[in-house]
Design brief:
heterodimer; A: about 10 residues; mainly alpha; 1 helix; B: mainly alpha; about 0% strand; globular
């Protein structure tokens, strides 16, 4: 989901 | 990646390196809250557990490794190597009053009820309040060395830049993570008082003194 992309942030 | 997030990460890295160098070269951790540094080490540990399981980019992995190494090195310097200079009497904020509620909230409000996601959520919430022992210590001692003020300015600025990054990503990619955004806003708001004092005082070469 959209939240998974957050994990590309530090 | 966008310029706001890149500058934010570099500001964060600068803050971490600046503090480590200050403690190492002055061989003292006076005025530094060991509790905040312990909380930051916990933040990085619980957030970067996917260090070995998911590869995003060389940049991402190397920054995570640097953050973790510096965080533990700083904690080591404070509590082991230079513990004689650690200011117990002023570093008295009850960190458990932060960790326990944040731990509970991470269980209640998260994107996915899995161990890795709950730990990531815990680290996001914890990071937003991890600086409180340090700000509390400065309010107790009534002042901060200029290098500590620069450290706090870079540290506070990094998450403020992340907020701009989230706005940019929302409008350019339609991406947003409400948990990270809300926690990031809380974190940045905690620095507002300090930012005001930093801009009005430290820039003109005065010592920073928070109202006791």
């Amino acid at each position: 989901g959209a939240e998974d992309q957050a994990k590309d942030e530090l | 990646m966008n310029v706001f997030r890149l500058v934010g990460d570099l500001s964060h890295l600068l803050a971490i390196i600046m503090l480590l160098k200050k403690i190492w070269s002055s061989r003292s951790c006076a005025g530094i809250s060991g509790k905040s540094q312990l909380l930051f080490a916990l933040v990085f540990t619980t957030r970067y557990l996917d260090l070995f399981t998911s590869f995003i980019s060389v940049y991402n992995t190397s920054m995570k490794v640097i953050y973790i190494l510096c965080a533990y090195a700083t904690v080591y310097l404070i509590y082991v190597k230079f513990k004689a200079t650690y200011d117990h009497n002023h570093d008295t904020f009850r960190a458990e009053f932060l960790v326990v509620p944040v731990g509970g909230l991470a269980f209640l409000v998260n994107h996915d009820f899995t161990p890795l996601e709950i730990l990531w959520t815990f680290s996001i919430y914890l990071e937003s309040v991890a600086i409180m022992p340090q700000l509390f210590m400065i309010s107790k001692t009534g002042e901060a060395e200029s290098i500590t003020s620069h450290y706090l300015f870079c540290l506070g600025g990094y998450r403020a830049l992340y907020i701009i990054n989230w706005l940019y990503r929302f409008y350019s990619e339609g991406f947003f993570d409400l948990i990270a955004i809300v926690a990031g806003c809380v974190q940045t708001i905690l620095y507002c008082d300090f930012f005001y004092l930093y801009i009005t005082k430290v820039i003109y070469g005065q010592k920073l003194s928070l109202p006791a």
